[in-house]
Amino acid sequence: MPWNNSAWAAVRRCPGYAGSRNTPAPCWARSFSPYANFGQVPLPAVQEAVRQQFARWGLPASLRVDNGPPWGNFNDLPTAFALWLVGMGVRWHWNDPGRPQQNPKVERSQGTAKRWCEPERCVSAAELQTRLDEADRRQREEYPTAAASRWELFPELRHSGRSYSLAWERRAWDLALVEEHLAEYGAVRQVGANGSVGVYDRARYVGRAYAGQYVLVQYDPQAHGWLITDAQGRELRRHPAPEICRQQIVKGTFGKSS
Fold first, then answer.
1. Residue 74 phi, psi dihedral angles, 5° rounding
2. Beta strands 202-205 and 91-94, pairing class
């Protein structure tokens, strides 16, 4: 694979790139959601839920996440969702694909919540949510002992110290942070028979003369566009990147395919 056999090996790609390992396994348990997997949940719904949590607990300095949309994807560039949070100054830490042990406390807490809440006994999503809220409260406010709860041992659990509101987001969201972050990535593409490569959900023309060859796609923040080079670092083509803008990133209207 050219990625490992060229200078491109040192170029960063999105740690959320996970290939087929993100494919959900069949499940016949009771489901409270109309969606087969979380990746099918509309992005605006995810954003609204995240905003609610930020308003309650404060804006985090960073997020540690597993792979799969909307956090990561099958691509090698950050998702629109990831870039949206980058624009608010939130850093990302993606676990390596297929390595849940890299986030053991969260994985264990999910197992604990499942045992305590017994979702198989719930008759509705509302009942399950009530049980989850109570389990969450007990974990924070009563454990490990009544004399010294997690809230007392770790006061920062009450709030991150970084206030959030939708009004603040509208004022503070910064495209420059997104462009700076995106410039760290490199996407290897094989030029198609029509002379184009895919970047997010758009085709970028390189040239029919390069059909079958591998090229590197990078974001140039000074030019606000895509730079395409060959294995020797020679510039082949530049393209504007109109999708890298506040409106499309905040609304999540790009990057659904590569």
1. -90, 5
2. unpaired
Q: Which residues contact 180 (CB under 8 A, 6 or more apart)?
A: 221
Q: What's the one-letter identity of residue 109?
A: S
pLDDT at site 179? 97
Amino acid at 26: P
Mean of the pLDDT values across residues 130-153?
A: 85
Locate 138 and state its tokens. 């007990």
Packing angle between helix 125-141 and helix 104-117, nearest 10 degrees? Answer: 120
d(CA 58, CA 115): 28
122 within 8 A of 131, measured Cβ to Cβ: yes
Give, for 177, the enclosing helix (H) or strand (E).
helix 175-182
CA-CA distance, 89 to 194, in Å (whole number)?
39
Predicted TM-score (pTM) of this structure? 0.82
pLDDT tens per residue, range 164-206: 999 999 999 999 999 999 999 999 999 999 999 999 889 999 9
In whole angstroms, give the CA distance from residue 138 to residue 256: 39
d(CA 118, CA 99): 26
72 CB burial (10 A radius; 0-12, 13-18, 19+): buried
Backbone angles phi, psi at 102, to 5 degrees: -75, -10
Q: Is the pLDDT of residue 27 over 70?
A: no
Distance CA 71, CA 4 (A): 25
Q: What does the chain come to in residues? A: 258
* Mean pLDDT to the nearest integer, 236-258: 84
